[in-house]
Amino acid sequence: MTQYLIAPSIVASDFLRLKEVIAACESAGADWIHVDVMDGHFVPNITMGPFLVETFKRATKLPLDVHLMIEQPERYLEAFAEAGASHLTVHVETCPHIHRTLQHIRSLGCLAGVTLNPGTPVSAIEPVLHLADLVLVMSVNPGFSGQAFLPETIQKVAEVRQLLNKIKSSAYLEVDGGIAAETLPKMKDAGANVFVAGNAVFDHPDGIEAGITALRDAINQLPSSRVREL
Ligand code: DX5
Ligand code: ZN
User: Residue 74 has what pLDDT?
Assistant: First the structure.
């Protein structure tokens, strides 16, 4: 049976309360902590580096799912692995030697992830899917939390799912950007099994636990096609 995972995107939380925020994610049943690294070049925003990953590592036993939105990510792979990253995901747009980069990540003992912007076709990652432990489909243009979900990315998830099935890959298929109780089921139906969420968790009016519970309920809801059958 497919396991569906929730990965709160910590960048959307209140950093003055990091310890409580991480504890709340854990107690509400989050599976991974998603860490958005931005460099002000590849994306307009600047966020955090290995130092904060090391800090999170001391605060949680959950896997740290590190999403590198930076140019020349190869330069920092060792530093993030040493800091305690469990997964390192690179953008295909930033990696001219993507085979080498994914192999390098695996050699550091991390799961190797590859991702693509909404404007990049799935064909850009097809040649390296066999080297990926995780494929991340961006459902917003990366840079900020709280942006509107791009519905045209649902079809991309379906395409990636088909390609993964074709090569019998059990890689995680993760989605990131604008994921909330309303959008999650569409991505799940298309074949995603890991859901990153910033705003939906950290800006939920009833708190972090309620945000995560709402996503879990959305995962467990029947697909719309089955609802019609009943
Ligand atoms: C976007 C980041 C996301 C973001 C998600 O650049 O990669 O992880 O924080 O936030 P929401 O869920 O609010 O779109
Ligand atoms: Zn992210």
Answer: 98
